[in-house]
Design a protein that fits this description.
Number of strands: 10
CATH topology: TIM Barrel
CATH superfamily: NADP-dependent oxidoreductase domain
CATH architecture: Alpha-Beta Barrel
Number of domains: 1
Helix content: 25-40%
Strand content: 5-15%
Distance between the termini: 33 Å
CATH class: Alpha Beta
Shape: globular
Order of helices and strands: EEEHEHEHEHEHEHEHHHEHH
Structural class: alpha/beta
């Protein structure tokens, strides 16, 4: 496993990180979920990402139990806030930041999180109020560093313009061979301001592993067949996407990689990406994905893959 500096922080995060969206505390049973955590540590993954909204606290509670026996300095932990936990408890106001960090810490059974991220931008709260409150929880020792997820360039610039507050060190956008929107503006802006990307859905929710064949029944036991985990996949399971992904398999084979490893290595080719978040329901998936960190793949193969996917890529 290789490690990269997270923006202007002193954190070094593993190339591959373990996420908990739709999985832990919700779509994956406790036994396999704990096995995934154990395997993550075995293969050198040191960054675990979650959010208060995942399972309405269930993912954080699961991680609090699963990580309880491990030394706190043996892993880097990130969580998020913004989405409604109740009808009243939502957004990035000072009241919510102070309330939600304490609730998250309680569920996670820890005194601090390494990375506290704004899950989305809150247009109803002045950015000055948000940044000052976030800075206060850093000063209180409850948070080490700050990040955001899916903010527009204008959102980022507005935050950077607030004087006398803690700086963001991470951005968490969707990014994959099928979704390249951050490349034009977000990545360059962040790179110029000491902010790294921690990307979600680098495997297109599993579609870029090639396990969903066009015209075939969805494989049992996969995310697409799960009531808890498959609800966000409809747009990715279109025949034209599945057919294009199948054409990538010979390129991955030539690279000596599985298709999933090839897709992860493509994301990691971008210097501003500090880590690619993967979800896993089985420890074998964690091990396979982690191996992408060590791979060196001919850029010419990536170029061929980009050409195949060009008509499908989501750009501004």
């Amino acid at each position: 496993m290789k490690y990269r500096q997270l923006g202007s922080s002193d954190l070094k995060v593993s190339d591959i990180s373990l996420g908990s969206w739709l999985t832990y505390g919700l779509g994956v049973d406790t036994g396999p979920a704990k096995a995934c955590i154990d395997k993550a540590f075995d293969v050198g993954i040191n960054f675990i990402d979650t959010a208060n909204i995942y399972g309405k606290g269930a993912a954080e509670s699961f991680l609090g139990e699963a990580l309880a026996g491990r030394a706190r300095d043996s892993y880097i932990l990130g969580t998020k806030l913004f989405a409604p936990m109740t009808e009243e408890d939502k957004g990035l106001s000072r009241v919510q930041i102070l309330k939600q960090i304490d609730n998250s810490l309680s569920r996670l059974k820890t005194d601090y999180v390494d990375l506290y991220q704004c899950h989305r931008y809150d247009p109803e709260t002045p950015i000055e109020e948000t940044m000052e409150a976030l800075s206060d929880v850093v000063k209180q020792g409850k948070v080490r560093y700050l990040g955001f997820s899916e903010w527009s360039p204008k959102n980022i610039e507005d935050a950077l313009a607030v004087p006398g507050v803690e700086s963001f060190v991470s951005s968490q956008p969707q990014y994959s061979m099928l979704w390249r929107r951050p490349e034009e503006k977000v990545i360059p802006l962040c790179a110029d301001n000491g902010i790294s990307q921690i990307v979600w859905s680098p495997l297109g929710q599993g579609v870029l592993t090639g396990k969903y064949a066009p015209g075939a029944a969805l494989p049992e036991g996969t995310r697409a067949t799960s009531d808890e985990m498959g609800g966000f996949m409809e747009t990715l399971l279109k025949p034209q996407i599945l057919e294009a992904v199948q054409k990538l398999k010979p390129l991955a084979e030539e690279a000596g990689a599985t298709l999933g490893q090839f897709a992860l290595a493509w994301v990691l080719r971008e210097p501003n990406v500090a880590s690619a978040i993967v979800g896993a329901s089985r420890p074998e998936q964690v091990e396979e994905n982690a191996a992408a960190s060590e791979m060196t793949i001919d850029p010419a193969l990536f170029a061929k893959a980009e050409e195949i996917l060009r008509p499908l890529q989501q750009k501004p």
